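Review form for a predicted model. The reviewer records the input and the model, then writes brief findings.
Reviewer: anonymous (R2)
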Amino acid sequence: MSDYDYPPAAHGQSNMQQSADDQWEQVLTLWVKQADPRALSLWLLGCLRHIAHPASAQVLDEMQPWYAEPNEKLRWQIFHHAEILGFDTPAGALALSLFWSQGSMSPEGLEPVYPEPHLSGEMRRCVLLMLATRNNDNPADGTRSLLAQWTQEKA
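Model under review:
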């Protein structure tokens, strides 16, 4: 697990929104821990389709079918396109989360090396962090806005 201090898991979505003002980074961490990884990834994918730079379109388009039917060839293709795009972009970070979510990090023919189990979630948290701070002077406001969107779509 990561080195973050998590708020108690008993907090619900509304408590997460209330604590977003002073603990917005912890709220993002808790969100990632409590959300279904696939559901959150697909939701983030939908968010990024509306705001991402046009250069991200290819990797975003490749991720959708992978979530419907994962396969190794497409997983590696997504990784290579995200590497070119940059893992420091929201789309690149989400693609790296996908890559780390299953399978070996070693190319075919080499001894398999598997990522630490928490890394995929950490990258989803990075995507949320990038979205919360995007065009916001106050990241707590961005976190609150994202949570409101997530809650509305999950209701």
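Findings: Confidence is low (pLDDT under 50) at residues 1-12.
Further findings: The first helix runs from residue 13 to 18.
Recommendation: see findings above.
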